[in-house]
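Need residues for this backbone.
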């Protein structure tokens, strides 16, 4: 509500959007239910899932597509390194995987 502190990830949405537009890797520290983790991701989309904003990207650690809740991002650093794949290609591949996953869960 009004007066609540803004999570670092939400406060840095302009930086996340810039990284997506310029296809730059970002480093982030996140709090995953009390356990901190550091990730390098290739962000390509922002979305909402069940009332939370998420950044969608390729995670170098997991070598797979992952969703990161912006309200759990504690620190975010945009790098000068471009990621090696085009954003549109990753978005297309991610969508196809999500559709396949949804179909297999039915």
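Answer:
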């Amino acid at each position: 509500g009004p007066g609540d502190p803004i999570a670092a990830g939400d406060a840095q949405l302009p930086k996340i959007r810039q990284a997506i537009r310029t296809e730059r890797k970002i480093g982030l520290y996140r709090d995953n239910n009390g356990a901190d983790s550091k990730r390098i991701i290739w962000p390509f989309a922002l979305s909402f899932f069940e009332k939370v904003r998420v950044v969608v990207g390729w995670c170098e650690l997991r070598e797979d597509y992952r969703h990161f809740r912006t309200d759990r991002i504690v620190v975010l650093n945009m790098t000068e390194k471009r990621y090696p794949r085009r954003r549109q290609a990753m978005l297309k591949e991610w969508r196809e995987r999500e559709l396949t996953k949804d179909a297999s869960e039915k």
